[in-house]
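Subject: Re: docking follow-up (adenosine-5'-diphosphate)

Dear J.,

Thanks for your patience while I sorted out the input files. As discussed at Tuesday's group meeting, I've set up the holo structure prediction with adenosine-5'-diphosphate included as the bound ligand rather than trying to dock it afterwards. The sequence and the ligand SMILES I used are pasted below, so you can double-check that they match what you have on your end before we go further.
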Amino acid sequence: METAEQGFIQIFQVSKAYDTLDGHTKKAPYVLENVNLKINKGEFHILLGPSGCGKSTLLSLIAGYIPKSGGSIRVDGKEISKPGEDRGVVFQNADSAIFPWLTVRGNVEFGLKIKGIRSRERHSISSQYITLVGLEEHVKKYPNELSGGMKQRLQIARSLANDSEILIMDEPFGALDAHNRRLMQIELVKIWKQTKKTIIFVTHDITEAILLGQRISIMSKSPEATIYKIYDVGLNYPRNVTSKGFNELFEKVQGHFDYGQHI
Ligand SMILES: Nc1ncnc2c1ncn2[C@@H]1O[C@H](COP(=O)(O)OP(=O)(O)O)[C@@H](O)[C@H]1O
Ligand SMILES: [Mg+2]
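The structure tokens for the complex came back this morning:
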């Protein structure tokens, strides 16, 4: 029997098939098959794989949004079956995640309000995280007044204010231009260092994976996708593409994309 200390998040033999429309008559294909992964507390972990391989499906399972078809997912020793405050999700499309009728502060305080935290304390918690993500000059703005990068900062602040131990991020910078993506990557590493959160970050971008992660899990193609290789990045932060060892790792990882998809 595994103990929680050996892996804060434990994914064991996880499989997922979405239901087909005709239900019983046709067996649904397995998007994920026998995925195994252990993530340590405070780790910055990357899930890397080609488009359509099942990255979002795996994140949705960890977030508790959809039921798994087999296997087990535990956080801190407890089986996951539904969403929880321990896991905050940052989506690529911020517009579907943040409330357009609430200001920056209103969005960050939303969960705190539901929990019944009083106004003064809410204000102090939200101020702390709004400042941490660099939105302090924009507290009174509504989402439609924010840039793409600012909306992603807002999603991150909201998860942190809710005290989520785990940040689950699904290609959060995928819609940003190259300059803002780089700025957000640098910011995220800073936020991770300051808050010591556990981050599971999905990307299909090898450079982004190596710039951010302590470990990188590489997924094979769907159907029956699985994690077939895990790299320890082992480069010091802050990183950039000229960091020693960057190219070497890039080529290794890219090798899997070129030749390794079907193993
Ligand atoms: N709700 C759903 N119902 C049926 N099939 C789905 C659903 N969501 C995703 N899929 C299928 O599962 C596979 C993996 O999708 P996804 O997890 O979104 O991949 P990724 O995030 O890596 O691009 C794809 O073939 C996709 O069409
Ligand atoms: Mg996806």
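A couple of observations from a first look. Residues 48 and 218 are 5 Å apart (CA to CA). The radius of gyration is 19 Å.

Let me know if you'd like me to rerun anything.

Best regards,
T.
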